[in-house]
Structures are given as structure tokens and as C-alpha cells.
Amino acid sequence: MKLSVHLQESSRAAHRGARLPCAGDYITDGVALFYVESDRVRTSDGERLLELEDCRTLDLIVCTARAMARAGIRFVPSAAAYAQSLAPLDCP
């Protein structure tokens, strides 16, 4: 199911204590890849807003951080982090 559909649904299975996405993170819902362009604070009630870019279509989606926590997203490691995990260990 696409992330935009997940964001419109209310879910009771929120991931308590899970790290919320921040600017610069890549996330996926298992179907599409998104880049977190920015994370802002809505001044009226102080809730965090995230601006996501769909990496395939370049469409922008704005949603609350709370909705992201309920959407079942997964973090995608950056290429640099992935390459570092493959680097050989220094052995004496």
C-alpha cells in the first residue's frame, strides 16, 4: 500500500519510542522510496511537519511526524553508511 494512503488512515499500532524521521533521512513503506526534505514545527500547536520527496516522481508530500510513526515506515541506510558496513575490519 502506498505511503500516501497509509498517512490518511488512522492506525492504532503506533510504534512507541521509535525514532522519527529527520531531514536528510531516506525512508520506505516497502513500495516507494522517500527523501525527508525538511522537518519543521507547525507554530499553531507545535507539532512537527515533515516534507517528503518521492524519489521516483519527485512529488512532495507534507505530513505530521506522528502520522509517519503510525505508517509503518522503515529507514533506508545511505550509500555511505552501507559502504562503511562493508569495509574490511583492521586486523593485526
Would you write up a description of this structure?
With 92 residues, this protein is an alpha+beta fold. It has one domain: SH3 type barrels (Roll). It has 3 helices and 5 strands, in the order H-E-E-E-E-H-E-H. The chain has a 5-stranded antiparallel β-sheet. Residues 4-16 have low confidence and may be disordered.
Give the SSE layout.
Layout: H1 3-8, E1 26-28, E2 33-41, E3 48-54, E4 60-64, H2 65-70, E5 74-76, H3 79-86
CATH topology: SH3 type barrels
Question: What's the Cα radius of gyration?
Answer: 15 Å
Overall structural class, as computed from helix and strand content, comes to: alpha+beta
CATH architecture label: Roll
Uncertain parts: 4-16
Mean pLDDT rating: 74
Helix content: 10-25%
Give a count of the beta strands, DSSP E runs of length 2 or more: 5
Summarize the main sheet. 5 strands, antiparallel
Number of domains: 1
Report the sheet-strand fraction: 25-35%
List keywords for this structure.
92 residues, alpha+beta, five-stranded antiparallel sheet, 22% helix
